[in-house]
Amino acid sequence: AGNLRVLSTEAYMIVTGRTNDLGGGAMLSFMLLLPTTTAFMVQRFWVSRKSFVTVTGKPSTTLADLTSKRVRTTLSVVTWTILSFILLLYVTIFAGCFVRNWGIDYTFTLANWRAVVDSWEAIKSTVLLALIAAPLAGFLSMIGAMLIVRKDFPAKRLLEVLIMTPYAIPGTLVGISYIIAFNKPPLLLVGTAAIIVINYVIRELPVGLENGITALHQIDPSIEEAAHDLGADVPTVFRTIVLPLV
């Protein structure tokens, strides 16, 4: 933000740079938590009141346009404009690899690619930790989605809120909270690969959960009920019906 001071960078600097003050950084991060959590809870309440079933198992013999051609054209233009902007950002990153100093000196060079060789160990570690974290996050997310969408128990909404909380909490707060929580025995994880894997998994759980919930909401439960009535157990239903549809 340039000369504009904002809470996230202030909290980060207090913890890592100026005074190594974990408590002060946690307090500033908590101020970030209030508006994001409020917006998150409002959004969850609004979404939970709607139904999005699209796969019902019943064949449809007719197709209908949901909107007029003018509306579709307008939405297409808006969508492609946004996509083009996002693509432009990635193109800029790629182009920046081949110049000396982006924004100042656009002389073509391949010298920047030496950083790939110099960072090879970091690249291998990153890929390894991601390969460990990705299946864990996907597996846990899908279990959570199945419990929330298909099961009914007293703490279901609480479970959903807890899994989705990392999505609402600013990343600075998450990072500071992990440092505070895991920097002393018996949970001394700071400085280990384990804390990075845990961060990956927890941070991406909401994404996997939302994808799983969205997919399961679009599948009519009667399809699974029919399979159960025909004698299929839960793993078989999940493997042969739910998973292919998801």
How is this structure best described in words?
The chain has helices at residues 7-18, 22-48, 69-96, 114-118, 120-150, 156-168, 171-181, 193-217, 221-229, 234-245; strands at 99-101, 105-108, 183-184, 187-188. A hairpin with a 3-residue loop joins strand 1 and strand 2. Helix 1 (7-18) packs parallel to helix 7 (171-181) and helix 5 runs parallel beside helix 8 (193-217). The protein contains ten helices and four strands. By secondary structure, it is mainly α.
Key features of this structure:
two-stranded antiparallel ribbon, mainly alpha, two-stranded antiparallel sheet, 246 residues
In short:
The chain is 70% helix and 4% strand. By secondary structure, the protein is mainly alpha-helical.
Could you give the count of β-strands?
4
Q: Average the pLDDT over all residues and give the rounded result.
A: 85
Strand content: under 5%
Provide the low-confidence segments as ranges: none
Radius of gyration: 23 Å
Main β-sheet: number of strands, strand sense, barrel status?
A: 2 strands, antiparallel
Instruction: Provide the helix percentage.
Output: over 70%
The helix/strand series, from N terminus to C terminus, equals HHHEEHHHHEEHHH
Largest beta sheet: strand ordering: 1-2
The number of helical runs is: 10
What gap, in angstroms, lies between the N and C termini? 41 Å
Shape: globular
Secondary structure category: mainly alpha
